[in-house]
Amino acid sequence: MAWAKNILRVNLTEGTCKNEPLNMEWADKYLGQRGLATKYFVEEVDPKVDPLSPDNKLIMATGPLTGTCASTAGRYSVITKGALTGAIACSNSGGFFGNEMKNAGYDMIIFEGKAKSPVYLFIDNDDAKLVDAGDMWGTSVWDTEDAIKQKHQDPQIRVASIGVSGEKGVKYACVVNDYHRAAGRSGVGTVMGAKNLKAVAIRGTKGVGVKDAGRFFEAAAAGKAVLAGNAVTGEGLPAFGTQVLMNVINETGALPTRNHRDVQFDGAHSISAEAMAEPRESDGKPNLVRNSACFGCTIACGRISTIDRTHYTVAERPQYQIASGGLEYEAAWALGAATGVDDLDALTFANFICNEQGYDPISFGATVGAAMEMYEDGYITDKDTGGIELKFGSAKALTDIAELTGRGEGFGAEIGLGSKLLCEKYGHPELSMSVKGQEFPAYDSRGIQGMGLTYATSNRGACHLRSYTVASEVLGIPEKTDPLVSDGKAGLVKAFQDATAVFDSAGICVFTSFAWSLEDVAPQIDAACDGEWSVEKLLEVGERVWNLERNFNNAAGFTAADDKLPERLVKDAAKTGPAKGLTNQLDKMLPEYYQLRGWTPDGVPTNETLSRLGL
Prior knowledge:
The protein is an alpha+beta fold and about 625 residues long. About 40% of the residues lie in helices and about 15% in strands. It is built from 26 helices and 17 strands. The protein has a six-stranded mixed beta sheet with strand order 2-1-6-3-4-5, sandwiched between helices. Strands 8-7-12-9-10-11 form a six-stranded mixed beta sheet. A three-stranded antiparallel beta sheet has the order 13-14-15, covered by helices on one side.
């Protein structure tokens, strides 16, 4: 039970949709969603494949808890070889799409080949078909979702789609569902666009069963009580969203500022959660309208925001919506501190463009920050930018380039390359703050040492959601560790990585891990799923998934040499704050990490490790 035990395989080249049974032996080893879909992917796809080739596959996958009454059980992931990185990609999204997919009776949808012309997949429970999307090509995700609901005369249809950025090949395009929830990183939307797949639209009404309903309801209720009683999941995130971190991380001295030149931003308060809740002088209304929740979520960390109607961004563009998904911490940092911009309405506008046209605000903002540094140093000129003065702190430059990037036009097409390719093109690869081609999130690893190892070893490129050591190093969850020391961080990172792989594979939100340990998760999975699921078994699943991803990357051509940080972080000391005078000590942490992982000094899983994990 819990699994639908059914896969939909869509061959875009041939235009066919066929059902097949889920491999339950694999489900017992990989659980679901991230783990199970990655197993299917690595078994079927050549690691050397070009991410934009028809031979690359794209999988949308739910977890066994997706669609159940467990808190936050609305997640789904998109798994492919990432267009931004060339590494294994698994991008996780909330909203309501995952629940609809599971209720239609599918654990995953596997897309193969490439359609001759734009199409979207329409699923109504057991009925699945490809539909012409020629009239939707060139439209935003907002317009696409509205058009599909109108065409099928059903407002309850859930849609995941790409915007113009995904069609135009922006390397970090997203797959967006429910207007502002996104499988956001690594360019999964770019792969979707390369397949001429505009959208997936689903209506599912079957329901989701569990093995032992009474025991599952009891375990789920206990889990919800833990979330409600926790200061982060019961108070901080509902009230302030992830933006609660802006001032906290700035005071910690780990807020990357102006392309990691600095670790603190003097404009942090102006773009913080507190600022979002403050009434504006112009109309007395705050930026923040309310919070919002994904399917089944008892945390409700999402934000809905508006832009001041008198602000230049919308005053000059009356066609734009002024209310949508508001700033999350990562987006506020990338669009704000990374670029030196402290105009809250400008950041909100740029974030709306990211939502509307479907591209990752983290990679976008970080790439703009790198471009601004190159512009100020004279490596990029007005001739290159089309006249845009790409200076740190320029809100106008940020919003202008956001529109161009969303359309894949002008210098926006250059920004759409991502910082690694952009900086290489203009002769300064050292200015790309990235790992394996993916830009850093909102934590400077000089001030939070564990995050340096997290970034360097992340299988999908720099990522905070693969091992959020900030929980321990800053917030004291599950126990406090010193963010300024490297000792013990190898074990901490490995533990977070393995546990997070379980949360991602189960179909629940990783934010629950602020309050839940696997002791809280295991009873829910054990009551929902066939078989026996202990904490020990789940930890083994997490470790198996991590090594499976690592093996794929190694076969794709990545080596230990790619487990590195930019020189700026390991050679240039932090200038201010608690970490003043410190660099990241990756060289001390990495060898211990390899040893704990059961890998060779070259970062390759040993035969003993592979055998132990059944790989």
